[in-house]
Amino acid sequence: MEIRPATAADYAAYARLFPELGVDDPLPSAQHFADALVGRSIVAVDGDDVVGFALFEQLAEVGYIRNVIAAPAARRRGVGLALMTAMRERFVAATSWCLNVKAGNAAAIALYERCGLRAAYRSCALRLPSGVALAEPAPGVELVPVPAEHDAVVEPAMRLLRGQLASARTKPNRQVLQLVNGDELLGVVVFSPAIPGAFPCRLSDPAFASTLLARLRLLAPADATYLQVGIENDDALRAAILELGAFVQLEIMHMRGALL
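Predicted structure:
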């Protein structure tokens, strides 16, 4: 088995493997794959067959693994471990690595633990149906772009990884936004209209959840049936959005480990 960088020609294999993620997000187009994913991806090849795929990036000192997929017929043959090992080698100067995994995916969790990652906290993806009424946004509160020169202040204030916002700006159809009241920072989101959804999503106070979601709805496609929000290690915000009428779409475990 060989691990090599992905190419645009691997799209058919990627499309075949994508359902193994077990999510209902739309399959990225071939153009999106070529423009935004290929440069951050590796594949596992057995003969002429692509049997695994991984998507990753380095955010300053943290290696962030986005997806690890193995073909069903190739499982228990070391595909996942080979991909993890190859990504680890690519995280130059990183001091730690992390990923998100479905909370019930015991096989994947066992693999990641074998690689030295441990559960750090639980997160979730919430969905708010479009038919749920929201209160009018609080007066004076606006959702506006985060200037790149403000990242060094916004990221630590909102508990984001260093470089996370800069990375989001490099990806197609991502809007890096901050919720503000004058000069006061209330929250930050990276919004993708294609889902439509916000991840990461941070608020200084869960009381601003309704205002944030009302503002995000204005940015979603007119025919969207829901708004998705990723909540990381924030039980109060999770509870506030559920109280508005959202439901849990996915339970997630965030795992972290040191890189020596």
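Summary: Residues 206 and 237 are 5 Å apart (CA to CA).
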